[in-house]
């Protein structure tokens, strides 16, 4: 079972998401919270696998709550908002969020996103990802790319580039003509060597370091 904490300052919205997710046989909502402070406290109390986090909330917003939760637990955070604004996406990823979706997401897609994030995958809507890297990933200073990526082997660098392009493990395996198991090993090593939490941060780093360019 994947244990969930649902966080939203609107009680009806919070209850709606909880009811949708509780209907899934492999998902269990173990707590709810109405603001960021409550989210941090409830996370300590119920130890969820995934936190479904609203962005705009009173007392403590979802970005700050995400940063606090990521620092103090192993829970992964999936951000949900009605606002399709790039700044929120970038700040959420910087805070350690593993995914970002709009609240108009379909119930089936929401459940899929929760499972993907729980499994360590990235969950960003393609349009959001495109604007994120175009608007907020600054080009590196001269020499910065070699310094940050120098710990990777040539094959690991290839894998990071393909992660940055949004390819799944299966697609990377097909591109490089290796097995999915081999790709999984490479991905694990890339994240470990670069001290990255998940694939979302790997995508951002690939653009920040100049390995990929917007467009």
From TrEMBL:
Keywords: DNA-binding, Phosphoprotein, Transcription, Transcription regulation. Residues 3-118 form the Response regulatory domain. The modification 4-aspartylphosphate is found at residue 54. InterPro entries: CheY-like_superfamily, NreC/VraR/RcsB-like_REC, Sig_transdc_resp-reg_C-effctor, Sig_transdc_resp-reg_receiver, Tscrpt_reg_LuxR_C, WalR-like. Residues 145-210 form the HTH luxR-type domain. It holds the Pfam family Response_reg. The keyword Transcription applies. Gene3D superfamilies: 3.40.50.2300. This is Response regulator. It comes from the Bacteria.
